[in-house]
Amino acid sequence: MESNKTTVTDFILLGFLVSPKMHLVLFGIFFLLYTFTLLGNGVILALIHLDSRLHTPMYFFLTQLAIVDISYASNTVPQMLANLLDPVKPITFAGCIMQTYLFLMFALIECILLVMMSYDRYVAICHPLRYTLIMSWRMCGSLTITSWVCGSLLALVHVLLLLRLPFCGPREINHFFCEILSVLKLACADIWLNKLVIFVACVFILVVPLCLVLISYSHILGAILRIQSGEGRKKAFSTCSSHLCVVGLFFGSAIITYMTPNTKNSEEQQKILFLFYSFFNPTLNPLIYSLRNAEVKDALRRVFKRERPI
């Protein structure tokens, strides 16, 4: 019996508890949002690759963020779209665990990337003369590798703790993807250790990074207010406000999801909050960075002029 604790071989994702007609409406809306996510982040990646003026540390981190956003959406959305068309189609146990791992990994990587991007802006605005020395390409590469390695290892810890639990039924997950808290509810054992590790991880990967970001931007705000040039102040505000919008959306929804007390409607509320990770954040990130960033808009104009036939 010890070697055969996991008797559940697949799960049913209940998704959104709405009528079949509404499933088709949601399918159309989510398919369009997913397409915009891929196109928006793809355009950001292409722009940064094509325009040499964007080959700077800030846009290097932005490419990593775009890759994570595409991966985020591609990990959860195709399965959700399939379930909207066929609600009773199961997902295998192995597929569910892999989806949980990838979601956690990309979430953790994005947390770390957002902190690194705030540090990059802090150095650029508060120590401009030392920027190229501090934020060298070697440093950027090391920070990026660190974010991916740490995200992968921390997600692996959660998944290994999940795999030690027996699953003997029921097999219906009240979510549109294999989110770890929803999967844990189906375990046939005490999950206090898993919840404790999740809470501790949230403190170190959400609260601490958010505090670091806020500290960075308090220094940045002070430096911006000391800038004499009106154009320089406007450019600094434009760049930093874009990053703060992304930070607010990501950390706000994550903290509400994992660090607030459960309520009667918490499961349905969590589904809405997780739409931020699957759709709204990945879709809005390229829009925020392009619409509120003069350098990206200028790069877009240059690319169109370059490709316009003579």
Describe the structure.
This protein has helices at 20-50, 57-85, 93-126, 131-134, 137-163, 180-184, 192-225, 230-259, 266-291, 294-307; strands at 10-13, 91-92, 172-173. Helix content is 75%, strand content 3%. α1 crosses α10 (294-307). The longest helix has 34 residues, at 93-126. With 310 residues, it is mainly alpha-helical. The protein is globular, with a radius of gyration of 21 Å. A 3-stranded mixed β-sheet has the order 2-1-3.
Condensed summary:
This protein is mainly alpha-helical and 310 residues long. The protein has 10 helices and 3 strands; from the N terminus they run βααβαααβααααα. α1 (20-50) packs across α10, α2 (57-85) crosses α9 and α8 (230-259) packs antiparallel against α9 (266-291).
Query: Unreliable runs, pLDDT <50, ≥5 residues?
Result: none
Q: What structural class do you assign from the helix and strand content? A: mainly alpha
Q: Tally the helices.
A: 10
Task: Let me know the average pLDDT.
Answer: 83
Q: How big is the Rg?
A: 21 Å
Topology overview:
Layout: E1 10-13, H1 20-50, H2 57-85, E2 91-92, H3 93-126, H4 131-134, H5 137-163, E3 172-173, H6 180-184, H7 192-225, H8 230-259, H9 266-291, H10 294-307
Parallel strand pairs: 1-3
Antiparallel strand pairs: 1-2
Helix pairs in contact: 1-2, 1-9, 1-10, 2-3, 2-9, 3-5, 3-7, 3-8, 5-7, 7-8, 8-9
